[in-house]
Design a protein that fits this description.
There is one protein chain. By secondary structure, this protein is α+β, with helices and mostly antiparallel strands. The chain folds into 4 domains: about 70 residues; about 110 residues, Beta-Lactamase, CATH 3.30.450; about 70 residues, Helix Hairpins, CATH 1.10.287; about 150 residues, 2-Layer Sandwich (Heat Shock Protein 90). Helices cover about 50% and strands about 20% of the residues. The protein contains 10 helices and 13 strands. β1 and β2 form a beta hairpin. The chain is elongated and about 160 Å long. About 25% of the residues are buried. It binds adenosine-5'-diphosphate. Adenosine-5'-diphosphate binds next to α7 and α10.
């Protein structure tokens, strides 16, 4: 029998082996395809579930946004609206110019400043400010005109973009605070009326005490002392009543005109010099001149005097009071910084409330009634500005007043 050749061996062994390998590969490929298909189906199902969950979340978010009585707008970096809720659409409806007048765009929306009459200057609308990258809160504007006018408190926060974490737009929130303002106005009117009614009897008391004390030599020393105490306290009461009247009237009596704030600071420094020297407090100022803003020199001067005199008064161990001012993004910022008693964060948040006094001020028996800062705040807000305070107990305080910068008067260049 002849020996099997190489080709016999290959056809007898290798061929079946190859056939077997091919069959196994085909089978494997088949089960692989089924596995892939199952995976695709699973992924598809997971995606559908995700989509359903995200739609549900979107519906929930939209329902919440349309349920709350706060207006919300999200805009991109160019100011294009990305989202707006139902309440905000209602607010916009109030601010829409009256029927028959040109459409918004041709005529400005009915959005006014603190005095309820002056349209907001260009770039000062809540959305514009947010698009310019400003973060702010408690920015009060008035929407609409006549009896439909509403006071709206606005706040804005910026959003980052996905590309380079730069400015990607902003969310602006609008809250109707008309009722709160009405209540505050009613309270102010009551305070003003009561204070006014106190005026005449107090004048009479003081006049009669003065008359009685003029004939002091006929009085017993004890009686004279009592009358003097009564006169001193009636005097304090009259100062308090005057402050109350002033605080109620501060906003209404603001008459804006181009004013050089550098000059106002200079006046404040001159008036405070004697108080500062007596208290061993140094006074320094860094204010570029001239520094124009639309301001009521009398009222703003009074606000500045309050801040400077407080800075000195609440530095009982002596120290340094610095006044700085600068122009920044269409605003003028005035800072009054001291190295005095300072206060806690909780106290700082309450100092603009009438009659609030810090425990350090009371313990150090520093005279005061807690009205100056509430008057100062009203004056600053009457200018369309805002006032903030940053303070650390034992380290000192910095009060910052921000006012819309104004153009110089026409005759000044
Ligand atoms: P008054 O000085 O008459 O008490 P204000 O309204 O001016 O009233 O101030 C309210 C309170 O805020 C003060 O009683 C004091 O406790 C605190 N305060 C104001 N200014 C300062 C300051 N510069 N440093 C520390 N505390 C201050």
């Amino acid at each position: 029998m002849p020996y099997p050749t190489g080709s016999d061996i290959s056809s007898a062994v290798l061929l079946p082996l190859m056939m077997f390998a091919v069959a196994v590969s085909i089978r494997l490929a088949g089960s692989n395809a089924r596995l892939q298909q199952r995976r695709v189906q699973q992924r598809d199902q997971a995606l559908r579930q995700l989509l359903a969950a995200s739609r549900q979340r979107e519906t929930l978010l939209k329902t919440i946004l349309d349920t709350i009585d706060v207006g919300i707008v999200a805009v991109d970096s160019q100011g294009e609206t990305l989202l707006i809720n139902g309440q905000q659409k209602e607010f916009l409806h109030i601010a829409m110019p009256a029927e028959g007048s040109p459409a918004p765009g041709q005529q400005e929306w009915l959005v006014f400043g603190q005095d309820r009459r002056t349209p907001l200057p260009p770039g000062k609308g809540p959305v514009r400010r947010a698009v310019q990258g400003e973060t702010y809160s408690d920015y009060l504007v008035w929407f609409g005109a006549g009896d439909k006018q509403r006071a709206i408190s606005t706040a804005a926060r910026g959003m980052k973009n996905d590309v380079d974490d730069g400015f990607g737009g902003a969310v602006i929130v609008f809250r109707d605070v008309t009722d709160v303002l009405d209540a505050l106005t009613a309270k102010d009117e009551l305070v003003a009326n009561v204070s006014h009614e106190f005026g005449s009897p107090l004048t009479s008391i003081l006049g009669n005490l003065d008359l009685a004390l003029r004939g002091a030599e006929e009085l017993q020393p004890g009686t004279r002392r009592c009358l003097e105490i009564a006169e001193r306290n009636a005097g304090r009461l009259r100062a308090l009543v005057q402050d109350l009247l002033l605080s109620a009237a501060a906003v209404e009596n603001v008459h804006l005109r181009p004013t050089d704030l550098a000059g106002l600071v200079e006046n404040s420094l001159v008036s405070a010099q004697a108080q500062a020297s007596a208290a061993h407090v140094g006074l320094v100022a860094d204010v570029p001149a001239p520094l124009w803003a639309d301001a009521d020199p009398l009222r703003l001067g009074q606000a500045l005097d309050n801040l400077v005199s407080n800075a000195i008064k609440y530095s009982p161990g002596g120290g340094l009071v610095s006044i700085r001012a600068a122009r920044k993004n269409g605003w003028v910022q005035l800072e009054v910084q001291d190295t005095g008693l300072g206060m806690t964060a909780d106290e700082t948040s309450r100092i603009f409330t009438r009659f609030f006094r810090t425990s350090a001020a009371r313990e150090a028996a520093i005279p005061g009634v807690g009205l100056g800062l509430s008057i100062t705040k009203s004056i600053v807000e009457g200018h369309g500005g805002n006032i903030t305070c940053h303070s650390l107990p034992g380290r000192g305080s910095t009060f910052t007043v921000a006012l819309p910068a104004g153009p110089p008067p026409e005759h000044a260049s």
